[in-house]
Amino acid sequence: MTDLPPNTALPTPAETTAGTTADGESEAKAEVGVGPWEGEWPEGEHWDPDLLRDGDRRNVVDQYRYWKHEAIVADLDSKRHDFHIAIENWQHDLNIGTVVRTANAFLAKEVHIIGRRRWNRRGAMVTDRYQHVRHHPTVEEFVQWAEGEGLAVIGIDIFPDSVPLETYDLPKNCVLVFGQEGPGLTPEVHEAAVATLSIEQFGSTRSMNAASAAAIAMHAWVRRHVFQQPVR
Length: 232
Hints:
The structure is a single chain. This protein is an alpha/beta fold. The chain is built from six helices and nine strands, in the order ββααβαββαβββαβα. 25% of the residues lie in helices and 18% in strands. The longest helix has 16 residues, at 210-225.
């Protein structure tokens, strides 16, 4: 599979479509993606003929423009990282969609939903189509799965026994677990975790948004195991 050839017509941010405001004034709206392929179509099983003909308006990086969905997922699967993300979902947490979107950005192996199967996908911005998401009805089933996969369960929350994420040497094969917004990790996950990590804060608030904490923890793993930055 190859990237787009040099002569591919990728639009600039200036490409717009016209719209109208409530008071009748015209306004320009940015058009996402690229239009129909210009010139002779490329050859390869990963190209989607419908997208080549009609244009590709999906939220994907330029490398995957005009690719079939299954081809994109297969390519991502060939280079996913070794960490997993899990989030507890007992109260239909609105953060889950954003966590999935961030997990896709950092190319997590899988995202695990513990508790309720249904979750709000709005924040995922359709990235759940490219990110593997697995459901575990109970903490016990999730922990059994993690142990069977040889993954260290790492909780992210503020507990008396939490240690700083900034100085903890994250294992390469692990699953980072986040609790509900508000109550945080359940006692069952706290007990099952080999370590619980806290993120250093310097302001007046006691805690931060779960989706923000997830992004910080994922980036910490990337810095350690992709860029080989030592923990001091």
